[in-house]
Structures
1.
Amino acid sequence: MREIADIQYDFFDYIVVGSGFSGTTCARMLAEKGYKVLVLEKRKHIAGNMYDYFKNGILIHKYGPHIIMTDNQKVYDFINKYDETITIDVKMETRFNNNNIPLPINLNGIKKIYDNKTSKMLIDTLIHEYGMNSEINILDMLNHKDKCIRLFAHDIYQQVFIGYNEKMWGLKPEQIDKSVVGRVPIRINYNDIRSKKKYNIVPKKGYTQLFNNILSHHNIKVITDINAVDHLMINNDSILFHGKKIKVIYTGPLDELFSFKYGELPYRSVRFVNKKVTYNDCFSGLALTYPTKYKKFRTSDMCRVTGNNKSENTVLVSEYADNYNRNGKNYNTPAYPILNEDSSKIYYLYKNEAEKVKNLYCIGRLAEFKYYDMSQVIEAAFCLIKKMEE
């Protein structure tokens, strides 16, 4: 890494803070339009939470499993422009009374949970009430007028949603934004494939290589292991980089940019534990979630996640969540914004401040304090660059 002091700032048209999908996509699009772009990355590596690496021939996602799931042809074409991709069958399971059942929970899962008589009655009731292929938020089912549906919803809520959400978010489902809970609906069908998207892919050579390919452009300079916030200053309605006014695309935590003046935004952070095994007989899908009993909330099979069908071994990656602590030894990387009424109030105070800064553009899960999947954040980057050009 070259020292920041060696860089000629006047050479660049844009500063991009962060080299995850938000920053990397924006940087490439700007570079292809002829702009000079300086990408500043806080970590010692590019690719953000998508960073991966090979160990003993197995590709490991350092920060948990990442699969691009999208219906957007432009997103698919963008990824495939920089690397070949592998299609993945996105099947996940969850533990329920010592059984592995499909996640999202569907009619196959109901058959595994209950006896034949009960499951038939419940399935008939759900199909009659909601229709085949419907997807229902568990919170909407808890107060349903039909007693059978209410009891089923209560059972699933107690056995799956409470435990998982308390592990994942440190909160009960009703304390979290409804849209977050609704990402895992109850499905009225027999399809065990989690993703309904047209494309479910991973880059063949891994995300790190993909990001390296995207950032390989003569108009892009990347510096890692640097905290860009230390070099930025907001002065009235402008953001300055080493005293110079320059357009900044910011993908980091918004509260940090404004020196936490309204308090810290809450995030969950994740600790990862890897275990090499000869054969995974714990679950049959890509990953298994644990709503109860265990402290971990999910374990993923890296060979299945990355489409590696040739390795004799695999690596199981287990995830443990806790509240983010920026000064802590562990759990010091923000991963998931905790979305609720209180955190939204704080976020909008920062958002209002950011909107006053004319040469500042905020994008991504941290800067916008919202949940994005990878496809959504790439789409958001497309939209931002288009808007900036108008």
2.
Amino acid sequence: MKKYLKLFLTITASVALLYSCKKGCTDPNAANYDPSANRDNGSCYYINLPTNLVVTLTNVSNSGLVEIEATALNENYFTICFFDGNDSTIITSATGEASYNYSDSGSHNIRVRAHLDHQNYTEWNGVAEISINSSGISNVGYTTPLSYPNYSLVWQDEFNGTSLSSDWIYEIGTGSWGWGNNELQYYRQDNTSVENGYLIITAKQQNFGGSNYTSSRLKTQGLNFFKYGRIDIRAKLPYGKGIWPALWMLGESFSSVGWPSCGEIDIMELIGGNGYNDRTVHGTVHWNENGHAMYGGSNSLPSGKFHDEFHVFSIIWDQNTIRWLRDDIQYHTINITGNNLSAFHENFFFIFNVAVGGNWPGSPDNTTVFPQMMVVDYVRVFQ
């Protein structure tokens, strides 16, 4: 019996000695730290995680747009996770820049990681407080400044009131031959509203005055008219087959000489329709040269449609040329120095409208969704 007891004690002592002498990395700061090791064997190695992670979170006022800019030292890339209810969107960025558009107001968590590699990173967590304006219109999109070198702001409408200002006049009815284009709508004052800093023109499928559709058409004729300068109009456009929004100008001489002798400058027109049409805008001039003459160009988004967010439609107009820009990208120009283009050296007034149907877009079909809105944030004239 003593023999077996001695053997047992010997084995127990050997096991205890084995565990008491376990070698490994004993530095808690090492990547391969072994908490069960009690003797360091020199195997520790270390990973230099990214440091100095700084995150700038920008929430665009009255919209759901959140923009992230992150910087760090010793990072190879960033991942930015936007939590949205039960969903999340992870964006991998080499620059640390990312953006996300929330559709609901409230508190939304955001996580930013500066990565050395997939498993090794430094983490930042924050919260975006989202407040979308009561009109339900997201302000996401391109914008332009209130000043430019060598220009002065001479007129603007930011639509900050609760009704249309006295700078504008409503045009009512169906016009002659559907406003000269066989348009289908009846223009009414009731289809215009001003709220939360936006002018909203709404096209509806509505029986009124013998027409199946209603909308609005506004002008500044006799009140505000301009020759030359830079004009910026920030707007979000309607879409769909048969929908025809326009931001344009007519010569102030229209009442005396008629169209097209007065001249027409189409700053923006869109002919709605699925795909290409909903993501393409047109800039055109019309004039009289032994009859109607016109010259135009177009610009298309690479994807999506002009309804998705705000864009700025501009012209830069001087004594030599008219240039068309979308979001400060020039896409069309015309030389107006010829004698036959004298109309474009006179005063022009604004017209904003959303037509339904007509010779160019055709009629709405069963794919067209109503109501449709053109939302204008501002119009500015610089000279």
3.
Amino acid sequence: MTTFDKIIQENRSLAEFLQHFRRERHQYPELSNQEFETTRALRNVLRQYDIDVLDLPLKTGLVAEIKGAQTGKTVVLRSDIDALPIEEESGVAFTSKKSGVMHACGHYFHMSAALGAAILLKQHQTELKGTVKILFQAAEETGLGALDVINTGVLDKADVIFGIHNDPTLPVGVLGSKPDALTAGVDRFEIKINAKGAHAARPHDGNDPIIILSHLISMLQSVISRNVPSHENAVISVTQVHSGSTWNVIPDSAYLEGTVRTFNQQVREQIEQRFRSLVQGIQIGFNAEIELLWHAGPPSVMNAPQWIDFVLDVAQENGFTAKLIEASPIGEDFAFYQQKMPGVFIMIGSGGPYALHHPKFRVNDNALYPTANYLYQLAKRYLTEN
């Protein structure tokens, strides 16, 4: 019997309940800022266990609170609850019942683990020295859901925050994190080109936006290779290009969209500035109207170095193989919480074989209760030792 099996056996009834809850949420996924039923389901379970839910001006999502018998510090556990606009192809028996909506990022796993941690903390409330706040955050996929929680003021006096995300590249039973940058800062850009259309046989009568667009794409590829130091990691990806509607007409306009990923705030600002300079130069050079829309997303998750050994030690003591991992170019609005307080974001092995946001993505249930237990132990030990 593995350590995980032993942990599950110790509280099989709760483990089975969490599995049932996770699978139910899998069947009824909800998109960002539309998680009404998910919020209601969480609230109902928390009430059944007499766990306080704070009265906050949140449209969806909620914050639970458990106060120990003694006063002390405040630790925050964060999970997220929203799904993605993806048609599910996982083939599991409890597949999504909502066409075109799927929990393809595993947020049902995160919320179920956090719910389990809340139940365990409530069961041991008299042993706690301090307060635990458990976030069931909405709208992580927008990159801005964390700001709605922060703006309520509920975290103003919190001391530290720990968050989790499943990682299908890690096997079940493995957990990882790292100091400093763990995920990338995420920005989205749109470029709209308005020029002058013409008959395809007489291009000299117009100002071809497709030619302008192609120059822009080529120039953008030089932003990182010729402006960002080679020891810095950064990515620019053009992901959408649209122009024209038929074969013999040069269109009036063109559009492109993409993303920038960075791990350094200075580099992030440098790339945006260079973007704007290039767009302005091409606009002048081609005598066209070009609009750049820059949508700043979450910054890079910056894990507090002083807490890395702590989160890995607690994991190792509770059945996980804990290790340092490489940074990932995914985005995470957990980073906004870290601008208010120190914290660590932790990757939990979910076993694959499909990547996050893949229509065949799924999570191995064997990781669920051990993760709930880990979050419980993490909060309890923090309050005991600080």
